[in-house]
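Please supply some protein, with fold tokens.
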Amino acid sequence: MINVILVDDQLIVREGIKMILSLDEEINIIKEAENGRQLLELLSTGQLPDVILMDVRMPIMDGVEAAKIVKEKYKDIKVIILTTFNEDEYIFEGIKNGVDGYILKDAGSDYIIKAIKTAYNGNMLLDPEVTAKIVRAYNSIANDRQTPNQLNEYKKKLEMLTQREIDVARLVAQGKSNKDICNILFLTEGTVKNYLTKIFEKLELTSRTELALFINQLELSK
């Protein structure tokens, strides 16, 4: 059973998501909160979920600030952010803080359920629409860092990877889970995890989301 805490300041949104998640017998919503501060109060009582599904824009404490604290104090909890991508800065602060995934608020029920299960299993689910939105937003925010010199530095980092590591990185950028990568490249899950550890070390990244951004940015610059 995957235990979930749902965090959103709008009751109607929480009720809608609860209805969606009730369709899956493997997911159980153990608590709800209206903002980040209320979430942290719940966690401090020892009510720890496997996954937190949280809105990005809330009063008192937003989802990104709450996610940062959660990731510092409770490293094993997965955090998925609900977003409309209207606030680009929120997205990239979240990525830096180690958020495990993003779901568009208008995502279908199957996708939301799949995202929760994927995060629970330690993977990142980024469908093409979400990836494209993140990359476009990243490019618009980080133009000052995307000079030819910066892109050359990124390419030099990429050259540090072996061909097999590049294959793994590109599949992560396509939103593939570790299991998917195993099947595509005929590798064991342990081998894939080892490759990812080396990739993160060489590229100085900390999450699958950052890796997806890194690879997609270079692909778009070609």
Q: What stands out?
A: The chain is about 55% helix and 15% strand. The longest strand covers residues 27-33. The CA atoms of residues 80 and 106 lie 15 Å apart. The radius of gyration is 17 Å.
